[in-house]
Amino acid sequence: MLASRQAYTQTFRILGAASESLTHVLIISGVIAFMVFIAGMVRERKRTDSPSGIFKRKPLLVPAIAFILTALLVMSFFPIPMSDYYGRNEIQENINGIETIDFTVYDSIFYSNTLDVTVAEILDFNESLHVELEGYANDTLTINSTFIINGTGGGPIITHHEFSIPLQPGSYELITKVSWYEDGVEIGGPTSVNVILSQPMASGMFNEVLQWQTYQFLLLVLSIFLLILGLYITTEKKTRAKEGYERRWDLLPYG
User: Fold this and answer.
1) Which residues pair with 121 in a beta bridge?
2) How do residues 181-191 score in pLDDT, each as one tens digit?
3) What Rg value do the Cα atoms of the chain yield, rounded?
4) How many whole angstroms separate alpha carbon 29 and alpha carbon 23?
């Protein structure tokens, strides 16, 4: 399992997860659209009734719709490389005392196996903030950390600190306790403290996400173009002209 995951990761480092995903979408959608086109043409050739069907009047419309729907389904449900990206993994809480937070560390090449704890608060020079974090996975203690943030001189200023904890993928119950201290003595906190828990992206994967968003926009443009093309291209006028010519030929007197 580990060897296959390493090969999986190495492949996308070479090819690029966004480019590989786009290739999957275009190939699968293109094949489905082509099959729909062939099936429609075969069906139209077998038709003997009138008027002609949609495939004969607008031969590219249904394949264009098939391409668009297939592309949406592939991007939504097919296991393409970019389906391992779940968006920004972050929880923000205002904590005053003790809070319990459920947090999931994703098992994905797009994320690092790290939990970032970010704390921002206004502290005076003689104040400090203690952030205690206990994490449980399946009722087993896996995190037991305490972070101390000290105020600096020059009066009350916004103090911003970020701490990183190595953490394996999984679901965790995080018990966060915030305590205020003044001159080394614990006091009641005047306000709640803004605490952000997040799983940062792996190195180099942010560019893949930006590239995938660009590809999604280009696919949208391509879909609109194919739909307009399918609506515009028609054989109906040619068919009517041919039928009118045949009717006029039938009205000619025979010698």
Assistant:
1) 159
2) 888 888 876 67
3) 31
4) 10
